[in-house]
Amino acid sequence: MNGLYRPRHGRMIAGVCAGLARRFGMAPWTVRLLALLSCLLPGPQFVVYLVLWVMMPNEDRYMARAH
């Protein structure tokens, strides 16, 4: 399963970092650290996180659509 979705388990806030980590085969803590470090740079990182939160389906919805 290589789809982009927010998993039910392993979430910290909304599951965006855990979903990205699962999709790209990385550890969730690595993606969380990169997201946190990126907030030190100027740019719309927080807005991107919110957009991904809204756009990425939950695991349940993703699984229902996959079947």
Automatic annotation (TrEMBL):
The chain crosses the membrane at residues 33-55. Residues 3-59 form the Phage shock protein PspC N-terminal domain. GO terms for cellular component: plasma membrane. Keywords: Cell membrane, Membrane, Transmembrane, Transmembrane helix. It is a single-pass membrane protein. It is found in: Cell membrane. PANTHER family: PHAGE SHOCK PROTEIN C (PTHR33885:SF3). This is PspC domain-containing protein. It comes from Actinomadura darangshiensis.
